[in-house]
Design goal:
Chain A: Keywords: Auxin signaling pathway, Nucleus, Repressor, Transcription, Transcription regulation. Chain A: Belongs to the Aux/IAA family. Chain A: InterPro entries: AUX/IAA_dom (IPR033389), AUX_IAA (IPR003311), PB1-like (IPR053793). Chain A: Its main location: nucleus. The complex is a heterodimer. By secondary structure, chain A is α+β, with helices and mostly antiparallel strands. Chain A has a domain of about 100 residues: Ubiquitin-like (UB roll). Chain A is built from six helices and five strands, in the order αααββαββαβα. Chain A has a five-stranded mixed beta sheet. By secondary structure, chain B is α/β, with parallel strands linked by helices. Chain B has 19 helices and 23 strands. Chain B has a 21-stranded mixed beta sheet, covered by helices on one side. A two-stranded parallel sheet of chain B has the order 5-7. The two termini of chain B are about 45 Å apart. Classes of the chains: A alpha+beta, B alpha/beta.
């Protein structure tokens, strides 16, 4: 099963047991396709560590009453990010003031979609892609990366301050192509300059740190 | 038959009404080719880049009506970048040089500049009809030029275009001597027009039968207009906001009662439900009703209205009609041939507006149904199988389940069997759009049974290359294939390359086709243009020399006699 870069952009329901902070935006491939016994070797876009649930009445929104207003906004913005779906002419979409607001939200979301960055982790077999615009700050980002990559038995990704036991460090490549340590610059500056993220072994990153001081 | 005089052959060809038939007879022999080309009056160019404009003018010097289409269909859904192409100017220039007796021009999905409209207005003394559908690039200044210079204009039909508003004077540019208008549609214009000029214009055009106003036209103005145009057959109202008891409302009802010929209604932009009562007197005569821009009219009011419309043949509504409302349509509108149900709540939380039940109800009540566009939240195989049995006459079947890849909610199965039933039962099916969870199997069915299929739209469907191959190998009348977000790659693309010369075009976006695959196709088939369209916002992905393994985001392939086009923007690479 090949992965297209754009399945990342498809937004589907979260699996029932997802407890991640950001809306699940990756579609799970069906179980049906694994019927030839090669299911285990198939690449799947499910969250690592989750099993592929059967396609039981997937709803368009993640379930959970704890959905904050924020989450709902993100989800509906996220939902709007499948470009050109549903197939309705923009003329029609823009015809109603209410719908126009939605169309504008979609356009906003599409503009925000530019904040997708790849996340690689040393030793992990495949990369992930995340949307930086849904996070409010570094803490959220770290927590979500932690959750995302925990199946690769990372241990905690922690800040260098408390990070005496940290095995891994989160770094990023900025607009100039330089490798930087995540957390040094204000969040807003970070998200506007970050091009990709890389989770590397702690000892490699320490070199970065000392370079800075 | 070559021993008949040419006049006789030409006379016989006069009976051939379709472009396809005329194209076929022109290939029989040189004599027929010659007779046919000199007597052809109406020319249709399905893809503006398939042939050079000059060549068309040279071949058909007696052409009176020209129809040209530009951008691929998926441009309607913002999948084609803005400056991709499809310019009208070269066609108008060539026609001005080669066919100055042109009378009608129809353009769809093209970029039409004010300059082209001005050239058009001045170049054709017998010009009678301009129809622009889903076009862009012009302003009301261009329309002013048309109004000013086209003496004897009969038809100005602007459907869903993006028009920049440069003021309302364009309508006043129709000279007082203009009395020839039969059809005027400016519903897509956002700005105001000069109401007085409009009222005078419609009053003096005694043959006016079709008038579609834009949202800016008030009800008061509408009442005055209707009083002057009692013979109207088609009407698109303006905003239709009105106080129920107001005097204008009474005048409007009175005016409607005088319009005994009205058969088609649309518009109703901001209408309040109560005001729909004003048209009850016309409803029994209506054959066409478009309420798809009137979200304020909900279920119960819609139903009350529809109960009066028993002659309806074409109905466009929003899904707030609900399954119950569709049941009323089914029991009332026995003559219904075309139904379109649009979504009113695209980004919402999925309050089920219409489901498979509504469609099944329609199919059991409206046996003449042949054209469907249906946006819904869910569909079942059982429902589709029932619909297929009830309505074997579908020529166009477009189903859009709003949640991509959604299975049958009752059985959790893909919708292969449901669509399979449709293609098996509807032997005249020419156009099909799929949605929901679908495996390669549905394509096996389509390839096997959809013999007359001409246009197929695929999104988020299929498992492997086999799916696309079934279609390419099976559907012998396929002309347009458009695919998005489906796992079809180079193997499928290259399996049957000869097929693409029998088709107008192939569109694939967010699939698994690579640059290498596209290059291979282009190398094998020199008479195809293989366009690779790069997303302009993927700057972090774009490399100087992308490898052949790089997946192509958007690809558009079409047969052409004109070679690579020279107006392609930077982000389009023609291999």
């Amino acid at each position: 099963m090949t992965l297209t870069a754009n399945t990342d952009r498809l937004l589907f329901s979260a699996t029932p047991h997802s407890s991640v902070e950001f809306p699940a935006r990756l579609r799970e491939m069906e179980d049906v396709k694994g019927s030839d016994g090669l299911g285990d070797t198939e690449l799947r876009l499910g969250l690592p560590g989750t099993s592929t649930a059967t396609r039981s009445a997937k709803r368009a929104l993640p379930e959970g009453d704890e959905e904050s207003h924020d989450e709902l906004r993100r989800t509906s913005a996220a939902k709007a990010q499948v470009v050109g779906w549903p197939p309705i002419r923009s003329y029609r979409k823009n015809s109603f003031p209410a719908r126009k607001a939605e169309a504008e939200a979609e356009a906003e979301a599409e503009a925000a979609a530019g904040l997708y960055v790849k996340v690689s982790m040393d030793g992990a077999p495949y990369l992930r892609k995340i949307d930086l615009s849904v996070y409010k700050g570094y803490k959220e980002l770290r927590e979500s990366l932690n959750h995302m990559f925990q199946c690769f038995s990372l241990g905690e990704l922690s800040r260098r301050e408390g990070g005496s036991g940290s095995e891994y460090a989160i770094t990023y490549e900025d607009k100039d192509g330089d490798l930087m340590l995540v957390g040094d610059v204000p969040w807003e500056m970070f998200i506007s300059s970050c091009k990709r993220l890389r989770i590397m072994k702690g000892y490699e990153a320490r070199g970065l740190e000392s370079r800075k001081h | 038959m070559t021993y008949f005089p040419e006049e006789v052959v030409e006379h016989i060809f006069d009976f051939l009404s379709s472009h396809r038939d005329r194209n076929i007879v022109s290939t029989v022999c040189k004599a027929w080719y010659r007779v046919e080309r000199l007597s052809r009056r109406s020319v249709f160019v399905g893809n503006c880049y398939a042939v050079r404009p000059g060549r068309v003018m040279a071949r058909f010097p007696g052409m009176k009506c020209l129809s040209v289409k530009g951008k691929p269909h998926f441009a309607d859904f913002n999948l084609v970048p803005h400056d991709w192409g499809g310019f009208a100017l070269p066609w108008i220039e060539a026609a001005a040089r080669g066919c100055p007796s042109l009378e009608e021009l129809r353009l769809k999905r093209m970029v039409v500049s004010d300059e082209s409209l001005e050239l058009l207005a001045r170049s054709f003394p017998n010009f009678k009809a301009l129809v622009l559908v889903s076009c862009e690039g012009f302003t009301t200044d261009g329309l002013a030029a048309i109004a000013t210079h086209c003496r004897g204009l009969r038809e100005l039909d602007l459907q869903e275009n993006e028009v920049e508003d440069h003021g309302r004077q364009w309508l006043s540019c129709f000279p007082d001597s203009c009395t020839s208008l039969e059809s005027l549609n400016f519903a897509c214009l956002k700005g105001e027009v000069n109401a007085g000029a409009l009222e005078r214009l419609v009053a003096r055009c005694v043959n006016l039968r079709s008038l579609k106003l834009n949202r800016a036209i008030s009800v008061e103005s509408l009442a005055r207009i209707l009083a002057r145009t009692p013979h109207l057959v088609e009407l698109g109202t303006g905003s239709f906001t009105i106080e129920h008891g107001a005097e204008a409302y009474q005048r409007l009802i009175h005016a409607f009662q005088k319009c005994k010929s009205l058969k088609s209604l649309s518009g109703f932009w901001d209408v309040a439900p109560r005001c729909m009562q004003s048209i009850y007197s016309i409803c029994p005569n209506l054959t066409v009703l478009n309420l798809s821009y009137a979200p304020a009219i909900q279920g119960a009011d819609l139903v009350k209205l529809i109960r009066h419309c028993f002659k309806l043949q074409k109905l466009w509504v929003l899904d707030c009609i609900r399954d119950k409302g569709l049941a009323v349509v089914a029991s009332t509108c026995k003559e219904l041939q075309e139904l379109r149900v649009f979504p009113s709540d695209i980004y919402g939380t999925g309050t089920a507006a219409v489901t498979e039940e509504g469609l099944v109800a329609i199919s059991s009540g409206c046996s003449k149904l042949n054209s469907l566009l249906y946006f819904c939240h869910q569909m079942t195989n059982a429902a589709l199988i029932t619909v297929a049995k009830n309505c074997p006459h579908f020529t166009r079947f477009r189903l859009c389940i709003l949640d991509p890849g959604k299975p049958d909610p009752d059985t959790n199965q893909p919708l292969d069997e449901g669509f399979g039933a449709i293609v098996r039962s509807c032997k005249d099916l020419r156009r099909l759009s799929l949605s929901g969870l679908l495996t390669d199997k549905v394509f096996l069915y389509i390839g096997e049974y959809a013999a007359r299929l001409e246009m197929l739209s695929i999104a988020f469907a299929g498992d492997s290359d086999k799916g696309m191959v079934y279609v390419l190998n099976g559907c012998k009348n396929l002309r347009k294939l458009e695919i998005r977000d489906s796992p079809f790659g180079d193997a499928a693309l290259l399996e049957n390359v000869g097929k693409y010369e029998t088709m107008r075009s192939l569109w694939m976006s967010s699939c698994d086709v690579t640059l290498g695959g596209c290059k291979a196709l282009a190398a094998k088939m020199p008479r195809l243009n293989v366009e690779v369209i790069n997303d302009t916002d993927e700057s972090d992905e774009m490399e100087e020399n992308p490898s052949d393994m790089h997946k192509v985001e958007k690809m558009y392939v079409y047969r052409t006699l004109a070679g690579a086009r020279n107006d392609a923007p930077e982000f389009v690479e023609i291999l």
